[in-house]
Amino acid sequence: MSKFLIEIKKLYKQFENRNSNIKVLNDINLNLEPGKLIAIVGPSGSGKSTLLHLLALLDKPTRGKISILGYSTSNLSENKKNQIIRDHVSIIFQNNNLLSDFTALENVAIPLIIRNKSYNYALKKAEKFLKKVNLGHRINHFPSDLSGGEQQRVAIARTLIAETKIILADEPTGNLDYKNSQDVFSYFLKLKEKNKIILIATHNRELAKKADYTLSLVNGNIKRLNG
Ligand SMILES: Nc1ncnc2c1ncn2[C@@H]1O[C@H](COP(=O)(O)OP(=O)(O)O)[C@@H](O)[C@H]1O
Ligand SMILES: [Mg+2]
Fold this sequence. Notes:
The chain is an alpha/beta fold. It is 34% helix and 27% strand. It has a six-stranded mixed sheet, sandwiched between helices. α3 crosses α4 (119-132), α3 (104-113) runs parallel beside α5 (148-161) and α4 (119-132) packs across α5 (148-161).
């Protein structure tokens, strides 16, 4: 297998509307190796979320290739695709996508429950991960009773518990105060030691500086800035 966890070749994505085409990614090439924390920066509308959604296999490229852990993702069966997502890729969405009818604890437990782990085991582990994001005192709250920043931390815990090789985070610290974004980021930094890839779209320059390197997305092109 190649040393890269993610390989992107000539990835092209456009959105077609009734009377216009929006070209978002213009033949980008990128190889990402494990054990790195990588920041993605770029102006609003430059395609950061689009790229992360394509890597999470939630959307399809217009043209081009994405391989994840050596699997070419263009001609996978639904089953195989779902298995790759479940076992290898987690995403923290820009709007945190918590399930409103479930408590914080249950939301965090979901990635384990869908892998057929026992309910009690999943809840125990979920509590541990909520404590890691400083939410041990909110485990039985429903999303609507949590602040934006707290909801974001629940979403982060839900991603961390999955312990996947690939972690995609779309402006994960956008709703967090200084202390909580520092805490969350230092947790991400620990994960890269476990040979994961953590890809974070962020506007936070200070946090981007702590990444191994930064990718800048401008006018459909991607450029490595440092490192
Ligand atoms: N489903 C969609 N249909 C049409 N246009 C879209 C869709 N999703 C995103 N876009 C457009 O693609 C561009 C990139 O969006 P996005 O990836 O969300 O940027 P960013 O996350 O960098 O702010 C924007 O111009 C946006 O309006
Ligand atoms: Mg976005």
